[in-house]
Every structure is written in structure tokens, then in C-alpha cells.
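Support request from a user on the community tier.

User writes: "When I paste my C-alpha cells into the form, the page sometimes reloads and wipes my input. The last time it worked, I copied everything first. Here is what I submitted, just in case something in the input itself triggers the reload:"
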């Protein structure tokens, strides 16, 4: 591609220190991109026409902004084009496009960024998660009689939250306490959850927050970033304070989010969770999510970049359309 080929970058939204959302146009080709400064990456969410032209501009932007990774979300029909431009498929988000799969491709302007330092450990975590789920399913299928199997299913369904623990959708009045908790628990995080103003803005747009509290104190949080066009949601921002871990609060919050998403007509949900954390991976595996790939050095958490595992699930349709209040 000619470097002097004219292109237009139109800034649509910006959060200082975190990202710029930009519309890119070059000839007849268009793309929606996010320059993610905090994570030193560019994300391409949608593109049309010839990707080769867009790819050339992305390389220029990555060099100017000193970006280490470029990620492209694409449907099946664009796979060949991305491969031709040197992009590598890292995973799939099932049902992302209103039921159709999304293929996640990456390129690494900074070569060292594409090398995982914990691959062996993270592979073992996935193997253990899937093994646990398989063992659990086998126990459920043992020929111990239909009545016993039904009792086990009822017990699992009714586990729910511990007594005195109150789950609920977060409201604006919760934002200050939520920001304080996120600030205390997440010293480094890819989004500014420690800012009350950010939480309020996202609550009013496309993010559904659920929390668990006891005697007015928030113990656990999780959210769903909703894509209203594609009816797909990302489960994210999962947190439980250290003294309450091991009680299954996150799993119950995920189930509550799934129920509400189903009530709103969403077709699928997915998550990108820390590949080095056995607990959160096990939680999604046990809830019926499928492991579909790993994004190498994808997010800056703690002291450096971390790999993120992709887990996906097709949501069941709920007959009842009543929402949780």
C-alpha cells in the first residue's frame, strides 16, 4: 500500500489516558477502531470493503502511537483476507454477530508481545477446568435411578446465594461504593472502574452491573457489556472481596446476569478472563461456557500484560420476560 494514500481518522469518543474511538475511512474502505492506550493495542470492531488498505493504515497508526498489538474482530467470510495480511487467529467468540461466530485475529507490531511467557501453566489450568466439568457430568449421568439424578439437579439449582446475602442490579446510588471497592481491589485495570463518573455513564448506556451485598456492604460485583445491535454481551469486571471468596458469589452473579440478558433477548454471552487464574476459569467452565481460544498479552493487569482466555455460551430463551428489579 502506498504510504501517501489519503485517509481520514474521525475521533468519535475519547477518555484521556485510556482510549480513543475512531472512524477510519480510506477510499471506499471503512472501519471502526479503538486506540487503547492503557493496553497498548488497537481494536478493529467493524470494517468494510478491502481490509488490505485498512491494514496499511493500522500499521502507520501503531507505529506513531507505539502500539504493540492489533486485534481484529471479523466474521467467517473475512478470514482469508486477514490471513493474507499476516494476521493470526487467536480465538472465536461464538454467536457474537446475532448468532453468527466472530473470529478474533491479531497482529504484533511489537514482536515480543506475541510470545506468551506462561503458556504451559495456562494450558494446564484449562485442562484441569475441563476435566472437572467432565467428571461432574459423568457423575450426573451415572445409573443411580432417575429420582436421585433429579434430586441432584434440584439441589444444584437451589444452591443460590448464602443466607443474608442480597443480590441485585446496581443502580446509580451504588456507584460511589462500587468505585471505592474497585479502587481498593484492582490496583491496575484496563477500564477506569475506580471513577464514579465512568460507572454512572456506562450504567446509562450499555453496561448492566449486578452486585451482592450484606447489611448494606457490597461483597461481590460483575457486569455485562451489552452489544445491543448483535444481541451479544461480555461478562466482565468480576470481583469478590478476599474475605468472601470461595462461596460461589461470582457464579451466582453470572447466572443472574445471564437470566437478565435472556429476558432482554440476548442470544449469547462470553468473557475474556485471566488465563493465569484457576478460579475464574473454573467458574465459567462449570456454568457451561466453552473454551474457544486465548488472546496473548492482551490486557495490562498488575505489573504487565496478561493472556486472556475466551469462554462462550449460547443463552437459553426465557419464557418469562419479567426483569429483576
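"...and here is what came back when it finally went through:"
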Amino acid at each position: 500500500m502506498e504510504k501517501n494514500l489519503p485517509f481520514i481518522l474521525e475521533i468519535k469518543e475519547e477518555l484521556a489516558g485510556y482510549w480513543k474511538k475512531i472512524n477510519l475511512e480510506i477510499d471506499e474502505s471503512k472501519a471502526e477502531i479503538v486506540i487503547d492506550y492503557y493496553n497498548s493495542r488497537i481494536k478493529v470492531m467493524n470494517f468494510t470493503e478491502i481490509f488490505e488498505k485498512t491494514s496499511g493504515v493500522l500499521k502507520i497508526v501503531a507505529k506513531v502511537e507505539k502500539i504493540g498489538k492489533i486485534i481484529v474482530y471479523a466474521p467467517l467470510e473475512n478470514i482469508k483476507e486477514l490471513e493474507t495480511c499476516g494476521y493470526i487467529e487467536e480465538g472465536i467468540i461464538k454467536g457474537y454477530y446475532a448468532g453468527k461466530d466472530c473470529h478474533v485475529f491479531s497482529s504484533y507490531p511489537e514482536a515480543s508481545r506475541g510470545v506468551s511467557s506462561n503458556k504451559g501453566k495456562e494450558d494446564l489450568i484449562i485442562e484441569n477446568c475441563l476435566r472437572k466439568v467432565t467428571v461432574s457430568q459423568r457423575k450426573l449421568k451415572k445409573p443411580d435411578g432417575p429420582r436421585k439424578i433429579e434430586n441432584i439437579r434440584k439441589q444444584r439449582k437451589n444452591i443460590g446465594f448464602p443466607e443474608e446475602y442480597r443480590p441485585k442490579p446496581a443502580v446509580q446510588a451504588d456507584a460511589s461504593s462500587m468505585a471505592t471497592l474497585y479502587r481498593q481491589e484492582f490496583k491496575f485495570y484496563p477500564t477506569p472502574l475506580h471513577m464514579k463518573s465512568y460507572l454512572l455513564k456506562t450504567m446509562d448506556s450499555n453496561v448492566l452491573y449486578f452486585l451482592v451485598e450484606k447489611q448494606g456492604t457490597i461483597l461481590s460485583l460483575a457486569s455485562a457489556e451489552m452489544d445491543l445491535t448483535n444481541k451479544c454481551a461480555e461478562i466482565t469486571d468480576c470481583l469478590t472481596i478476599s474475605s468472601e471468596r470461595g462461596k460461589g458469589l461470582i457464579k451466582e452473579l453470572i447466572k443472574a446476569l445471564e437470566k437478565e440478558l435472556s429476558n432482554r433477548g440476548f442470544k449469547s454471552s462470553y468473557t475474556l478472563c485471566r488465563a493465569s487464574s484457576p478460579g475464574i476459569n473454573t467458574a465459567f467452565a462449570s456454568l457451561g461456557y466453552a473454551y474457544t481460544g486465548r488472546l496473548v498479552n492482551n490486557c495490562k493487569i498488575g505489573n504487565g500484560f496478561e493472556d486472556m482466555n475466551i469462554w462462550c455460551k449460547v443463552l437459553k430463551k426465557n419464557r418469562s420476560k419479567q426483569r429483576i428489579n
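Agent notes: The reload is a front-end session timeout and is unrelated to the input. The CA atoms of residues 243 and 267 lie 35 Å apart. The chain has two domains: 8-114, 119-314. Escalated to web team.
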